[in-house]
Amino acid sequence: MDPNVLATPVPVSSHFMVAAYLLYLLVSITLTVWVARTLQRNGAHFLHDAFLGKERLADSVNHLLVVGFYLMNVGYVALSLKEHRTIWTVQEVIELVCTKVGWVMVVLGAMHFFNLYVFNRIRRSSQVRQQPPPVLPREYTRVSPQPAPVAERA
């Protein structure tokens, strides 16, 4: 083995990049887990109301939504990990991590508001189906018997 290969120093930039990547992953995944648990816990009450007390169905939908939430957000975190510029200072590490975590937070917020919109639509439609008609009928119209058809003349 060539002794010069072992003595080649690792550029300082790669240490900063690894630190930035690890910090970004730690903060983003921790934030995603916290938001998912919060939404699962607090969204369960909303879903029970939206599904008219069908608790098993509401719990199943809640679980499926959390799984989808994890897949979307952890996938986004993984896809946005790559950085094309070289990082040379701690300041650049902090700026990079804040920018990337900021985008993760925007995506989490957008998904949250989209889920609220969908849940609200489900809840409204279930409430409308349970309501009585807007005006109770007071009278009924009698339908007169149909006259007998007239025979055709040849």
How would you explain this protein's 3D organization?
The protein has 154 residues and is mostly helical. Helix content is 71%, strand content 0%. It has helices at residues 3-7, 12-50, 55-79, 90-130. Helix 2 (12-50) packs antiparallel against helix 3, helix 2 runs parallel beside helix 4 (90-130) and helix 3 (55-79) runs antiparallel to helix 4 (90-130).
Task: Kindly list the characteristics that best describe this protein.
71% helix; 154 residues; 4 helices; single chain; mainly alpha
Taking the sheet with the most strands, its summary is: none
Give me the secondary-structure category: mainly alpha
N→C terminal distance: 113 Å
Count of helix runs = 4
Describe the global form: elongated
- The rounded Rg comes to 30 Å
**Range of helix content:** over 70%
The number of distinct β-strands equals 0
The unreliable regions are none
Determine the mean pLDDT: 81
- Written as H for each helix and E for each strand, in order along the chain, the element string is HHHH
Topology overview:
Blueprint: H1 3-7, H2 12-50, H3 55-79, H4 90-130
Helix pairs in contact: 2-3, 2-4, 3-4
Give a short overview.
Helices cover 71% and strands 0% of the residues. It has helices spanning 3-7, 12-50, 55-79, 90-130.
